[in-house]
Amino acid sequence: MKLYVQLMIILFFSLLGEGISSVFNLPIPGSIIGLILLFIALQLKWVRLRQIFTVGEFLLANMTILFLPAGVGIMEKFDVIAPNLLPILLITFGALFLNIAVIALVVSYIKKKYEGDYEDSSKSKNNIS
């Protein structure tokens, strides 16, 4: 019974997000709105992590299975996607490299700000002798 209650809490927020997205005709998917609402509820302690932990862990562990329908849908409509495959790949890889570059810059900035800019130990030994 405990697992059903946990699943119902998660599905309630998903349904609430879908409802908000549909009623206000938002361009944001309802599932994302539901996740944001669940996050807010967790932060405000309206929902405790222990109340959804077991089902949440199960869903995270089986996330790849949940992406199968989307992958099948893409393959089913591949004839529609095929003419635009090159722009899709360019955008995907461009976004990938842009994300990597931004993450590298942010990590470098945080490292220098909070850890300092240390010299390489092999260089400092060579300068002493």
Which terms summarize this structure?
129 residues; mainly alpha; 2 domains
What's a concise summary of this model?
This protein has 129 residues and is mostly helical. It has helices at residues 2-23, 30-43, 53-61, 63-66, 68-76, 78-81, 85-115, 121-128.
Would you write up a description of this structure?
This protein is mainly α and 129 residues long. It has two domains: 1-66, no CATH class; 78-117. It contains eight helices and no strands. The chain has helices at 2-23, 30-43, 53-61, 63-66, 68-76, 78-81, 85-115, 121-128. Helix 1 (2-23) crosses helix 2. The radius of gyration is 23 Å and the shape is extended.
Could you tell me the radius of gyration in angstroms? 23 Å
Structural class: mainly alpha
Catalogue the unreliable spans. none
Overall domain count? 2
Task: State the helicity in percent bands.
Answer: over 70%
Question: Please, what is the oligomeric state?
Answer: single chain
Averaged pLDDT, please?
A: 89
What does the largest sheet look like?
none
Describe the global form: extended
The succession of helices and strands, N to C, reads HHHHHHHH
Helical stretch tally: 8
Would you count the extended β strands for me? 0
> Whole-Å distance between the termini?
72 Å
Our estimate of the beta-strand percent is under 5%
Subcellular location: Cell membrane
Transmembrane segments: 27-46, 58-75, 87-110
Pfam families: LrgA
Keywords: Cell membrane, Membrane, Transmembrane, Transmembrane helix
